[in-house]
Amino acid sequence: MQHVFAGQNELGRLCDEVIYQNDLKARLCAGGLGPVQTEVPVIVTHDTFRKLYSLDLVVGDTSLYELKAVAALLGEHTTQILNYVLLLGLGVGKLVNFRPASVESRYVNATLTLAARRQLVWNVSRWKPLSPACEDLRRRFTDVLSDWGAFLDTALYEEALIHFCGGETNVVTRIPLTRTGIELGTQRCCLHAVDVSFRVTAHTDHLAHAEAQLRRFLALTPLRAIQWLNLNHAEVTLQTLTK
Fold this sequence. Notes:
With 243 residues, the protein is of the alpha/beta class. Helices cover 36% and strands 36% of the residues.
């Protein structure tokens, strides 16, 4: 961390993330701590789906650093590096934020192996296939989890399902929201069928509250139903919410 602190002390707090990234790489290499790689590509695939990630900084092929220049580290930043750590099987990664008055850092640990992440418990007691597209959605989700395992970023699973359901052009749309006849605007939704959407979440507690919020949202839409796919650690729940 001495090179991180030295970088912030010399560059200040107002630079863009890429500036700190290049500076830290130069300092680490000058200190003989290489090899140091930046923007390291990581490709995730399943069948015809392909997702490219770029890792901020990797030291010695095993130490992963995700660099930020933001007001404060948020849960989404932890989710991001946790996703990388699990995909690479590294066990630990480190978040570093250069923007605060004092450098903010956080270790993110993930000891689950791919084999462990594939050991899933399925709850489908409240699932109703409302169309052939719903059956295909379930099959694709099952296949993806069997391949990648659970605990990854929900955005990755959603992106894969969008791909397999027909691609972003055919799946992602903005639907109108209304309350008692009052037009409120439009909002992004993923539709795998004409009037049925899907939502991938990773709620681990307060599930009744999460369901209530989804039902409130559904009531504002012209949709017939939402297929709710929730990852509660190793428990996968598929639930159909209808009006």
